[in-house]
Amino acid sequence: MNPLQRLIQKTQSVNLDQSFDYQIKRQRRKTIALHILPDASVEVRAPKWVPKYEIMDFVEQRSDWVIEQRREALAKLALEPGFDHGQYHPYLGERYPLHIVAGPRAKVVFSDSVIVVTVRDKSNSTQIEKALDRWYRQEAEAIYEERLFACFEVFPDWFQDKYVMPEVTVRKMRRRWGSCSSKGDVTLNVSLIKMPLACIDYVITHELSHLEEFHHGKTFYRLLAQVMPDWRERELLIEDLS
């Protein structure tokens, strides 16, 4: 077994007549943790030294919870919009209908509360999805840069004198809305563009606050509360919408 296989294993847990697969990820940690991923798959993160039978017992004891969480995740997936004419897609906290038109060049335009998607083949959902993905990324890059400048300006003068406003990298992120590296590089999830501006500003302000303190310590929260007093409400909003 190679090192990667030792760190990532797959097994199955059975609860009465229901079953689910789960993946075991060995990590440098002290406890076992269960995670239901957005695609409804189950991931178990465990210390490298814990025997497999103990992990299986841990999962079995929590199988009812896992099944319920997977049911909720699958229900969310079922509600995800398709790519047919008239179906609604999220953008900046609202949902707008798709208007699919045929044309020689793929493009997306947001006009009069409608997302107009031009593709070669109106019946090709893959073409529509790719065009939408490109549009979301373009919108994210433009709007995140604009909101980054606005959020940075709200920080106190001493902060703006101490730090250079970072550039933003936009990419797909499975588990986080944003991140700030120890070097001060800010990355934002492209899917954040589907959230209200209040949520986008919260994530950006959260990551900017990490320039002063990398971890979630007292200094970090003191600065965050100073710049954005209602950050808790915004955090709850983004959790409710996720």
Instruction: Tell me the series of helices and strands, N- to C-terminal.
Output: HEEEEHHEEEEHHEEEHHH
Q: CA-to-CA gap between the ends?
A: 38 Å
The CATH class of the largest domain is: Alpha Beta
Q: Please, what is the average pLDDT?
A: 88
Helix content: 40-55%
Query: How many distinct beta strands?
Result: 11
Q: How large is the radius of gyration?
A: 22 Å
| Number of H/I helices | 8
CATH homology group of the largest domain: Metalloproteases ("zincins"), catalytic domain
Strand order, largest beta sheet: 1-2-4-3
Number of domains: 3
Please give the largest β-sheet. 4 strands, mixed
Overall CATH architecture of the largest domain: 2-Layer Sandwich
Structure notes:
The chain has three domains: 3-79, no CATH class; 88-135, no CATH class; 138-241, 2-Layer Sandwich (Zincin-like), CATH 3.30.2010. The longest helix has 30 residues, at 125-154. It is flat. It is built from eight helices and eleven strands. The two termini are 38 Å apart. The strands form three sheets. The protein has a four-stranded mixed β-sheet. The chain is an alpha/beta fold and 242 residues long. 21% of the residues are buried. Residues 30-235 form the YgjP-like metallopeptidase domain. It comes from Oceanicoccus sagamiensis. Pfam families: YgjP-like.
